[in-house]
Amino acid sequence: MIGAGVIGLELGSVWSRLGSEVVVLEALEEFLPMADQRIARDGLKIFRRQGLDIRLGALVTGAKVSGGTVTVSYQDSDGEQTIEVDKLIVAVGRRPYTDGLLAPDSGVVVDEKGFVKVDDLCSTDAPNVYAVGDCVRGPMLAHKGSDEGVMVAERIAGFKPLVNYAAVPNVIYTHPEIAWVGKTEQELKDQGVAYNVGSFPFAASGRALAANDTDGMVRVIADLESDRVLGVHVLGPQASEIIAQAVIAMEFDASAEDLGLTMFAHPTLSEALHEAALGVAGHAIHLVNRKKR
What we know:
Layout: H1 6-17, E1 23-26, H2 37-49, E2 53-56, E3 59-66, E4 69-76, E5 79-85, H3 142-156, E6 170-172, E7 177-182, H4 185-191, E8 195-201, H5 206-210, E9 217-223, E10 229-236, H6 239-251, H7 256-261, H8 271-280
Parallel strand pairs: 1-2
Antiparallel strand pairs: 3-4, 4-5, 6-7, 7-10, 8-9, 9-10
């Protein structure tokens, strides 16, 4: 696999579980830089433990096919390297396919990367022309494009819906899954925003223990002053389902205390979100609380 991003990890982990030896070459030195650093670090350890050979700082420089074998050349901190593989999958990202889509005099502006320029309501520079989905700014996600399409259709019909781009869920469908919504710690540090963090490992979850699926954790990040939930990050079983609860909370501007006061069924995996929210203020019930600085 060339690329240790979302698609590279998903496909690589699938082939690995089917019995293939998988090598993942990633040019960046940092693993999943768009995700929470703690979640990314733990995820890397888990995937490597599962057998994925993830090589960071490996810049692919070429590939040649000969006799049914692909020889891949790459450069890392030790210099030029080569590896022979049966199959090579390129998963280095996507770009909008807008070449030749619009007439030069259409009035719709396309930037140098091929993205159609739109505002927060998906309006282009041309009157009554809208663009949604992977060809406009924001994450290339099916649910994000779908919600944009609904918003545009309803605004054309005279209603006033909005897409909350601060609450778009992201999911990596590996095992365990990785999911997040909102800000990461690094983003908040860069913005100078003070915050608190609460976390809860699935190793302390009765439901996860019963299912023998205890890798990972839930992390809740909340504003230091208002306690408003700014981001939630999940590594673990059914992370793609748990993150939906965090999205709902953020849509209603919930605080970590709001989540902590909400009753969660027991035993469930979702209790990990509840405990992480309680942990923001040092009130977790089923885990020793760390002293707040």
